[in-house]
Design brief:
Length: about 180
């Protein structure tokens, strides 16, 4: 089996032949760090000599609820559950029944976005309290303070990590879109 070798150390670290046993790798492990000579071959893809690290991942499961706006067919999912996490697509301030943007200002729109996220998270078997990361997209960074007034009411003492960026335009010319990641 070939082994990853850091390029800076290439001249001083021996490589192992394809099919080298765990014992051969272990015999070198006392001289070289384990991250250079992994002892398990289960983390590598064996297709056509490509020994690329592969994450161990369970299947992914789409989440769909009628309590949030429907996604565009064949384009994206409302959310995906994978490996104990839920990855929620961006929510815009759309009414899930009429499939139209709700009227109002950035504060009303922020409430609706988070309401939509909450419905999707609930359908996935989790909640806003288990959100660990949020991305907020604003059409105008001048709305930042007013959006934050509403946003800050939704999480307790431990706030999720968050990124907020201004973008040129958002779908349906709305002023805010919010996506999140939560644990199950």
């Amino acid at each position: 089996m070939q082994v990853y070798i850091q390029s800076a150390a290439r001249a001083t670290i021996p490589t192992l032949r394809r099919g080298a046993s765990l014992q051969a790798r272990a015999s070198l492990s006392h001289r070289f760090p384990a991250f250079i000579f992994p002892l398990s071959s289960s983390h590598f893809s064996s297709s056509s000599n490509n020994l690329t690290p592969q994450p161990k991942m369970s299947g992914k499961e789409p989440v769909l609820t009628s309590n949030a706006p429907k996604p565009l067919p064949g384009i994206y999912s409302q959310a995906i559950k994978a490996n104990g996490m839920v990855f929620v697509s961006g929510a815009v301030p759309m009414d899930p029944v009429t499939m139209e943007l709700i009227p109002g200002d950035i504060q009303a729109h922020t409430h609706q976005c988070i309401k939509n996220l909450s419905a999707i998270l609930e359908a996935a078997g989790t909640s806003l309290e288990k959100v660990v990361k949020v991305n907020v997209f604003l059409a105008d960074m001048g709305d930042f303070a007013k959006m934050n007034e509403v946003y800050s009411t939704y999480w307790g003492d431990v706030k999720p990590c968050r990124t907020c960026v201004a973008v040129k335009t958002l779908p349906l010319n709305t002023d805010v879109e919010i996506e999140c990641t939560a644990v199950l």
